Amino acid sequence: MSGSFELEPFEPARRRDYLALLGEAWGGGAMGSEAFDWWFDGNPAGSLRSIAVRDGAVVGAAGHSLARLVISGQEQLAQFSVHAVTAPEARGLGIFRALELRHEEQGKERNAACVLAFASAPTRPLFLEPLGWTQIDRRRVWARPLPFGRRKLGSPQLFDGRHERAYAEWARFLGNHVIRESRYLNWRYVVSPRTYRILETERGGFAVVGFTRKRRLRLALLMELIAADEDASMLLHGALAAARGSAALLAVPSPVLPRSLLVRHGFLPTTYRLDFMGKGLAQPLDARSEAWTFSFGDTDFF
Question: Do 76 and 40 touch, CB atoms closer than 8 A?
């Protein structure tokens, strides 16, 4: 095979090739076709996808998920780099860098403020060096070990104006963050092919618990928690109950979920950190760690 490659826009006919690369890199069950279609085609803000082709074969692929964020107090378009993969035989050719630069240029054309990512160990040096990204934060994950027990299941529910009003009360305290409007929340958690447990209060506060498995260990993740102070503790207690059957419930501190509240509910800091970084597109990047709020719900890899 030759060493050169060409970049092409993703077409539905290449869906199987993209999924095959993801399965080879992450394991066959990492992302099924239903989750792939939901993540990219169902996203209400849209998405970008491209592939790298060498001698007629797809040897690389990458995507950017678009999202509406509040950045510097203004609603703006941004994008997250997600689901990038290169075939083993094509590594070292610069495919990842080429795909990312293609999507960054497409983002500038859409007037996207920035591109963001939660980097993995292999992609971290690629983002920071040849792509010129900036480290924003390496935020520590907290965990609450759980006793053995059966997980409480709940019926799906739709997010609506009540939940948007609860979010609006907190929005000014969150700095730069993904906007929690009902359309986004319903796509992210209600119609998702993945399993989530949604909790709410009478005043519209809400929490979302997700589930994953790492090294054969079942873990629960606090994807979201938005509530007034008096309801946040109640929702966190409910999230712990919903997470029963998992080894631990993981959470990321935020203005709504301060470390003091986590400590009161038995959480402890872990050695694991979310490697959050970005690059300015239509405007300079705000790289202050304290300026950003994010949660597990903003990531794609859990």
Answer: no
Nearest to 281 by CA among 93, 81, 124: 81
Which amino acid makes up residue 87?
A
Cα separation, 33 vs 22, in Å, equals 11
Using CA atoms, how far residue 92 sits from 9, 24, 273, in Å, is 21, 17, 27
Domains along the chain with CATH numbers: 6-112 (3.40.630.30), 139-275+288-298 (3.40.630.30)
At 107, list the tokens.
């983002």
- Name the residue among 20, 70, 26 with its Cα closest to residue 302: 26
Would you tell me how many other CB atoms lie within 10 Å of the CB of residue 74? Answer: 9
Report the C-alpha gap between 276 and 14 in whole angstroms: 30
Per-residue pLDDT of the chain (302 residues; tens, 9 = 90+): 556 899 999 999 999 999 999 998 877 666 889 999 999 999 999 999 999 999 999 999 999 999 999 999 999 999 999 999 999 999 999 999 999 999 999 999 999 999 999 998 889 999 999 999 999 999 999 999 998 766 555 556 899 999 999 999 999 999 999 999 999 999 999 999 999 999 999 999 999 999 998 878 899 999 999 998 789 999 999 999 999 999 999 999 999 999 999 999 999 999 999 999 999 999 999 999 999 999 999 987 66
Predicted structure pTM score: 0.93
Contact (Cβ atoms closer than 8 angstroms) between residue 51 and residue 77: no
Helices and strands counted in the chain (H then E) = 8, 12
Report d(CA 49, CA 185) in Å as an integer: 22
Smallest Cα–Cα separation from 206: which of 174, 243, 184, 180? 180
Q: Which two tokens stand for residue 186?
A: 């319903």
